[in-house]
Design brief:
With 147 residues, the protein is of the alpha+beta class. The chain has two helices and ten strands. This is CHRD domain-containing protein.
């Protein structure tokens, strides 16, 4: 009977000796205030049509992720590129078949999203992906020129 009690006492002594008091400091959460709306500044010109219409690369926003390390940095994915509704139900016409979808790194400054970096989507060989090559338009049928 004494042997089990001695074993239990030894385990208890080791357990208590190995415990340390943690001196954790609790900090108040940082409260971040975002504007109700932010717009991208100076979108890049993608092309000018034969009739003089300028098409800008302002299509970031198909997906959004906040940077967990910096509350003022956001990553946004472009859409499929310039397109218009087609004459066939639920179809679209791709206006720039060599458009390369990209991820934009934006910083919020004075209520504006400022593009800091563009990360183009690429294939395994390192070549640029284009919207028609990747068939990013599978959600809706699209007309892409033969490339």
């Amino acid at each position: 009977m004494k042997k089990p009690l001695i074993g239990i006492a030894a385990i208890a002594a080791i357990s208590f000796a190995s415990c340390k008091k943690n001196n954790l400091t609790v900090t108040a959460p940082v409260i971040i205030s975002y504007p109700e709306m932010a717009e991208a500044t100076d979108p890049a010109l993608l092309m000018t049509t034969s009739t003089g219409v300028k098409v800008y690369n302002g299509g970031f926003g198909s997906a959004l992720a906040a940077d967990p390390k910096d509350p003022n940095v956001f990553y946004l994915l472009t859409d499929r590129g310039p397109n218009v509704a087609g004459t066939i139900t639920n179809s679209i016409i791709i206006g720039k078949s060599d458009f390369t979808p990209a991820i934009g790194k934006f910083r919020l400054k004075n209520g504006k999203l400022v593009l800091e970096q563009t990360i183009e989507l690429k294939n395994n060989a390192g070549g640029k992906l284009t919207v028609c090559q990747t068939r990013l338009v599978l959600a809706q049928p699209a007309r892409c020129p033969m490339i």
